[in-house]
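@channel sequence for tomorrow's demo:
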Amino acid sequence: MKARAKKNKKIKIYLAGAFSGWRDNVIASLSSYPIEFYDPRTDTDQSSICSFTTDDKNGVANSSAILCYAQEGHENVGLAWEAGIAVQAKVPLILVAEVDFIFPLLAGSALRIFTSIPPAMDYFAEWAKTGNELKAAYGAYYKSARG
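structure tokens (generated this afternoon):
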């Protein structure tokens, strides 16, 4: 994996999932931490397919992590596309799966899997405070697909 944020340096999280209010809640809840968010709703040129496709691809590739939020009833092909870019670019994929069935390729590609947003926000808050991805630290909060 490529080098990630150092202590006291902002981490950048790409927000992947349905275009709904969850993004605003995550951004507001973590606003006091050294975290920058890439939100495709506002950080891409939505005027043309070519523009937002390129912007989203670059946004994922230049992030410290991607937060993929899979919600029941909000199946999202864009999330799967963004997750694939993250895997190819070796950007850690953090999956929040509030669904009955977790797509195996998402689960197998995730560094961390959470079943709701609050523990994922706790994870990112600790990452921002410590400056590391907490690979060994979150036993009570996550299920991990790998290490």
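heads up for whoever presents: The chain is about 40% helix and 20% strand.
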